[in-house]
Amino acid sequence: MKVVIVVLGLVIGLVSPPALADHRCEELHEAAWAGETGRLRSLLDEGEDVDCRDPEFGETALMDAAYWAEPEAAGVLLRYGAAVNARDYDGNTALDHVEMGWFDYFFLEDEEDPGFEARLDEVEELLVQAGGLYGEEF
After folding, report:
1. Is position 74 within any domain?
2. Is 19 helix (H, G, I), strand (E, B) or coil?
3. Which residues does 87 contact at the CB level (< 8 Å), separation at least 6?
């Protein structure tokens, strides 16, 4: 009976196949780290879960936007209700991902992106204003 209901749901569009759902979550993450706010809004307006997780590390799209210093993307995700204090599988929050971005920026010295530092500061400020905490603060 359960199989018939799921198949019927797939046919009439009430249930998303897992592969499609995973692909859409992957698209959301890609849009977040690339700062593609229009694409983020489209995916979220179409019903993608704002807090869907990367299956390998458990990161949310907000964590990706934080690490890659994309304040506009972080703002969109927060406006759509992203959980500012969600934790990845290692217990890190989006603010922890900002710190990881700082570490990689300074030690890898990404000279191709001179605005990276200012954008990291902006993301950090957005997250703190939204009530963000570091993982060890819980």
Report:
1. yes
2. helix
3. 58, 93, 135
Q: How far apart are CA 122 and CA 86, in angstroms?
A: 19
Total domains present in the chain: 1
Judge whether 10 lies within some domain. no
**Domain housing 127:** 17-137
Q: Could you tell me which of 55, 59, 46, 43 has the C-alpha nearest to residue 96?
A: 59
CATH code of 115's domain: 1.25.40.20
Is 53 exposed, middle or buried (CB count within 10 Å of its CB: 0-12, 13-18, 19+)? middle
5 pLDDT above the threshold of 50: no
What Rg value do the Cα atoms of the chain yield, rounded? 17
Mean pLDDT of the chain: 84
In a domain, residue 3? The reply is no
19 pLDDT more than 50: no
**Residue 11 counted as domain residue:** no
* CA atoms of 29 and 45, how far apart (whole Å): 15
In this prediction the pTM is 0.82
92-115 pLDDT, tens digit each: 999 999 999 888 777 766 567 778
